[in-house]
Amino acid sequence: MGLGTTCIRGGYAPGNGEPRQIPIIQSTTFRYETSEDMGKLFDLEAEGYFYTRLQNPTCDFVAAKIAELEGGTAAMLTSSGQAANFFAVFNIATAGDHVVASNSIYGGTYNLFAVTMAKMGVEFTFVSPDCAPEELEAAFRPNTKAVFGETIANPALTVLDIEKFATAAHAHGVPLIVDNTFPTPINCRPFEWGADIVTHSTTKYLDGHSAALGGCIVDSGKFDWMAHASKFPGLTTPDESYHGITYAERFGNEGAFITKATAQLMRDFGCMASPQNAYLLNLGLESLHVRMRRHCENAQAIAEHLEAHPQVAWVEFPGLPSSRYHGLAQKYMPGGTCGVVSFGVKGGRAAAEKFMKGLKVAHIATHVADAATCCLHPASSTHRQMSDEELAAAGVPADMVRFSCGLEDAADLIADIDQALA
Ligand SMILES: *Cc1c(COP(=O)(O)O)cnc(C)c1O
């Protein structure tokens, strides 16, 4: 099936007379006839549900759809994108381990890695996504357990050279984890380029309506844990906290990663998606392929308009031929990139602040990837504690506006920008 068909039909196939929409199984627990029946579930010997903190059928229908969209073998939903990235890394890298990560990533993820996970004993080395292969090579250590990057980074809009990062990761016997939130599987399928694990903040385009916070982890099923058994004891030796199961033996390359993340991390941290939110996410997924096209068309039109505007200092959008990421975007996401455009208003911080005040259609919001256009001036909101010099060094200059193009008519968005610039 094509991706559009999978957006609607993936993950859940109703039988004769069954509901067309996925049922919301709003139940924390599930009933069994005998203790023996339930014991088999706890031993992971039989499939079934026992407690929604670990697994819920509604969430699993939706996770299965996202797995199909990405071309993976297994997936799980989480309560947020933050939880998805935390689980994806912590599932294989714990105290004493090391991870190589792109330095062009979402601020929340950077903080999770550089501050919170560092306190847990996981060390990160950050490299530029544009680094030379030798520089990437030099970042690895004997205790490196994973490589992490974002396909299109939020908010810098850098495009990851997935093959370059996958080649380096595999040369060191570790998987490449890629956050594919911005392009979505409609525009980019990282597994086809060598990525092993994909994560999402489903809060963004997958939901697409500012309705439900959520995350997802998808496994390609291609990474051979047993071939690098000494690096990944959590997957290749018995889990004494789970009845002595060895995940890679029992569930193979196709299922080990997600089963471990569910049985261990979800059990212990409980960052579970609610069935209600999974239902809302699925409504978003049913139109993802149609919406992404429109988000990208609007962003292309707006980026081109901004580039020609005399009051605009610079524009960054990987869909523009002038972008230094245009080549990588053409390779990894030829059908379109995302709906987010960054630009600088001539006149610096004060001019950008004035521009924001003038907007009438675009919402001012700390959000992206919504049906409604939203706009942020980092220097006067999320990054307001930083000086102009610090902002420039962080790649978030004081004149920068992040414009997330929604699904409105492009002409209305362009008219709104023009009158605000005027
Ligand atoms: C928003 C975002 C996250 C965090 O997701 P939440 O759902 O807000 O927890 C992670 N990665 C990227 C690329 C994001 O844009």
Describe this structure in words.
The protein has 422 residues and is of the alpha/beta class. The protein has helices at 3-9, 35-42, 57-70, 81-90, 107-119, 133-138, 162-171, 184-187, 233-236, 247-269, 275-285, 288-307, 326-332, 348-358, 388-393, 410-421, and strands at residues 74-78, 98-102, 123-127, 144-150, 176-179, 197-201, 215-219, 312-316, 340-345, 363-364, 374-376, 400-404. It is built from 16 helices and 12 strands. Strands 1-7-6-5-4-2-3 form a 7-stranded mixed β-sheet, with helices on both faces. Strands 8-9-12-11-10 form a 5-stranded mixed β-sheet. The protein starts with a helix and ends with a helix. The model has no long low-confidence stretch (mean pLDDT 96). The chain binds pyridoxal-5'-phosphate.
Describe, in short, the structure shown.
Helix content is 39%, strand content 14%.
Topology (SSEs and partners):
Elements: H1 3-9, H2 35-42, H3 57-70, E1 74-78, H4 81-90, E2 98-102, H5 107-119, E3 123-127, H6 133-138, E4 144-150, H7 162-171, E5 176-179, H8 184-187, E6 197-201, E7 215-219, H9 233-236, H10 247-269, H11 275-285, H12 288-307, E8 312-316, H13 326-332, E9 340-345, H14 348-358, E10 363-364, E11 374-376, H15 388-393, E12 400-404, H16 410-421
Parallel strand pairs: 2-3, 2-4, 4-5, 5-6, 10-11
Antiparallel strand pairs: 1-7, 6-7, 8-9, 9-12, 11-12
Helix pairs in contact: 1-3, 3-11, 14-16
Bound molecules: pyridoxal-5'-phosphate.
Query: How widely separated are the two ends?
Result: 48 Å
Strands of the largest sheet, in order across it? 1-7-6-5-4-2-3
User: Quaternary status of these chains?
Assistant: single chain
What binds here, in terms of ligands, is: pyridoxal-5'-phosphate
What series of H and E elements makes up the topology? HHHEHEHEHEHEHEEHHHHEHEHEEHEH
Report the total helices: 16
Pick out the low-confidence regions: none
On the 0-100 scale, what is the average pLDDT?
96
What is the radius of gyration computed over CA atoms, rounded to a whole number of angstroms?
22 Å
Shape: globular
Strand content: 5-15%
DSSP summary, beta strand count: 12
